[in-house]
């Protein structure tokens, strides 16, 4: 079976956080009474779901869970930075589905960035919660590639409108954060898979559901309800993603769920979609394409060139990114 989906920052494995994660791991096994077990990991595997879920989702002082495990270079499972491993083709050569949502950055972008100077500080000094401390030259080029023009920011659906309540430059910074945290990783993975002639089915999800504010656009996690055909919104306490939507949304969900199930069964997302006119072509070096999932127009293949300059630069400078 192929790896179903790759999420997050494969390019930016943290080179120095193993010790910190060990502290978190020890705290978790203590909390669920596995600390004295001969094999603590095996013990965790046997902890009842409700107890483990409760332990993992206790919010810390910042309102988020204390447990946030990201890839880190441990010399064993992760032997080097993701950008290096992809370039050397040191990865499991199994078929994948890899995709992102158009407006990913609205879920991660910094709030309250009102000036270009503040954006620069975010890039170079970690101000306003910046995830990386970039050299001056790289930061300046990022500012150039992400101009202070709202229509070039995210979400795309807002046109030239600004969102002062989130920051006068919020759409600008959200576009960059979406690229660096999600989009650049997905594109580089698809490219790397094609370089070894390994199947990669890549996509861009471009639908706004009703469980988030319109200003968030097609933000992070919005495709999940579609993939699982969760029309009733089971588990969604803060809003139902399909409440009051056109029938085209439900039909898109049916298509996506069929494609994911087909991929799991046959490693081919097209095998079980019947008479659908939508066909998902794999990524290739000669024809880098992704499937644009949309409910307002018919889903279709598109060249994988969306935000090409910004994403190419991030991937070319991946070795310079440090937390």
TrEMBL record:
Keywords for this protein: Hydrolase
InterPro entries: AB_hydrolase_fold (IPR029058), AChE-related_enzymes (IPR050654), CarbesteraseB (IPR002018)
Gene3D superfamilies found in the cross-reference section: alpha/beta hydrolase
Chain ranges of the Carboxylesterase type B domain: 27-295
Any coiled-coil regions, as ranges: none
GO molecular function: carboxylic ester hydrolase activity
Domain of life: Eukaryota
Family, per entry: Belongs to the type-B carboxylesterase/lipase family.
Protein name (database record): Carboxylesterase type B domain-containing protein
Protein species of origin: Aspergillus clavatus (strain ATCC 1007 / CBS 513.65 / DSM 816 / NCTC 3887 / NRRL 1 / QM 1276 / 107)
């Amino acid at each position: 079976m192929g790896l179903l989906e790759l999420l997050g920052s494969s390019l930016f494995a943290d080179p120095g956080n193993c010790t910190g994660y060990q502290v978190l791991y020890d705290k978790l096994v203590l909390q669920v009474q596995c600390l004295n077990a001969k094999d603590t990991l095996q013990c965790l595997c046997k902890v009842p779901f409700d107890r483990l879920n409760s332990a993992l989702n206790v919010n810390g002082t910042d309102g988020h869970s204390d447990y946030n495990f990201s890839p880190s270079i441990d010399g064993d499972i992760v032997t080097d930075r993701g950008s290096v491993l992809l370039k050397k083709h040191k990865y499991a050569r199994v078929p994948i589905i890899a995709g992102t949502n158009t407006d990913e950055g609205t879920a991660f972008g910094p709030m309250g960035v009102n000036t270009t100077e503040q954006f620069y500080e975010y890039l170079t000094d970690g101000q306003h919660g910046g995830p990386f401390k970039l050299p001056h030259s790289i930061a300046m080029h990022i500012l150039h590639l992400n101009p202070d023009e709202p229509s070039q920011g995210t979400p795309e659906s807002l046109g030239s409108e600004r969102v002062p309540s989130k920051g006068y430059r919020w759409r600008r910074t959200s576009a960059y954060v979406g690229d660096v945290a999600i989009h650049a990783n997905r594109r580089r993975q698809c490219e790397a898979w094609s370089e070894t002639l390994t199947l990669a089915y890549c996509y861009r999800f471009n639908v706004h559901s009703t469980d988030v504010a319109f200003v968030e656009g097609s933000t992070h996690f919005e495709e999940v309800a579609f993939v699982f055909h969760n029309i009733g919104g089971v588990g969604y306490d803060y809003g139902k993603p399909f409440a009051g939507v056109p029938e085209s949304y439900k039909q898109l969900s049916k298509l996506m769920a069929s494609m994911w199930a087909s991929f799991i069964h046959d490693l081919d997302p097209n095998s079980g979609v019947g008479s659908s006119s939508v066909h998902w072509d794999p990524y290739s070096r000669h024809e880098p394409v992704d499937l644009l999932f949309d409910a307002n127009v018919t889903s279709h293949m598109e060249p994988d060139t969306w935000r090409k300059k910004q994403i190419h630069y991030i991937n070319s400078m991946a070795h310079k990114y440090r937390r």
